[in-house]
Design brief:
- The protein is mostly helical.
- It has a single domain, classed as ABC transporter involved in vitamin B12 uptake, BtuC.
- It has eleven helices and four strands; from the N terminus they run ααααβββααααβααα.
Length: 294
């Protein structure tokens, strides 16, 4: 029982990070039906921005988190304006290839700028371990912080989407882009804001991931980015609650596989789950089948 609780807590921490990344995927897809495969690299840039803020600018953790969010948001806007906006009316295949190209560009750019070595991520917040159930179950202050920050980000995002003017515009563009344009909504600005918000959430995930594993490197965004994509598909891509649920569920599954089976098979199970969900329920757990006129 103690092992199950310990792995569940690990899964919630990891799932929180996946959920934050998956939210960026699902927001962009919900607006323009684009899978932004460069999202994991935005996470990497956000992690390095947080590292720079703590080590060079000497900012505290929350100020460094905000700095990383701003840097990643600007990067997201630049990527959208330069790489994706000119292809707005192109085929999905052209946009998909561009997204992969942007991902490779950022990966290799990161290797050139930051080098190939792993960098120790500074512990801006002291690591404290709490013991429960006779000391058999431990929870660290970092795990608690990851969960709290993730929930706070999700609540802020829900408020933005549901209660603000830009959120209403985002929902309108997602529902019918042409009709939103006729109603006076600046669709290009809404898309840029969507990229900015999604990229900021990726930066939060990058900083939390660096704190969780205590190291960062230029290729750190590849696997978390792919797994977050699986989480978005699992929950129902384009659906914000689905991205949250998929992220937490995937993190728990991965932790349980690592704890009860082997860490060697956790990636196999994750990507096997992607194949299974696409065969059994392609719209995801919270998605609904819709008819499309052709």
């Amino acid at each position: 029982m103690e092992t199950f609780i310990a792995q569940l807590l690990n899964g919630l921490s990891l799932g929180s990070i996946y959920a934050l990344i998956a939210l960026g995927y699902t927001m962009v897809y919900g607006i323009i039906q684009l899978i932004n495969f460069a999202h994991g690299e935005v996470l990497m840039v956000g992690a390095y921005a947080g590292y720079f803020a703590v080590t060079v600018l000497k900012l505290n953790f929350f100020a460094a988190l905000l700095f990383a969010m701003v840097v990643a948001a600007l990067l997201g806007i630049i990527i959208e304006r330069i790489a994706y906006k000119p292809l707005r009316r192109s085929t999905r295949l052209a946009v998909l290839i561009t997204a992969i190209g942007v991902s490779l560009f950022l990966q290799n750019g990161g290797l050139q700028v930051f080098g190939t070595d792993y960098v120790s991520f500074p512990q801006a917040i002291k690591r404290v371990t709490y013991r429960f159930l006779g000391g058999n179950v431990t929870v660290t202050s970092h795990q608690i912080l990851i969960l709290v920050v993730t929930i706070a980000m999700m609540l802020i995002l829900q408020y933005i989407v549901q209660k603000t003017k830009i959120g209403k515009a985002m929902r309108a563009v997602s529902y019918d882009k042409d009709a939103a344009l006729l109603m006076g909504i600046n669709v290009d600005s809404v898309i840029s804001v969507t990229f900015a918000i999604g990229s900021a959430l990726a930066a939060v995930a990058g900083v939390l991931l660096g704190m969780y594993y205590q190291t960062i490197h230029p290729l750190m965004g590849i696997m978390p980015g792919l797994k977050a994509f699986v989480a978005a598909v699992l929950g129902g891509i384009g659906i914000i609650p689905g991205a949250m649920a998929g992220g937490f569920l995937l993190g728990i599954i991965e932790a349980l596989v690592s704890g009860y089976w082997s860490t060697t098979f956790r990636d196999v199970v994750v990507f096997g789950l992607l194949i299974l969900i696409l065969i059994v329920k392609p719209v995801g757990l919270l998605g609904k089948d819709t008819r499309e006129k052709v």
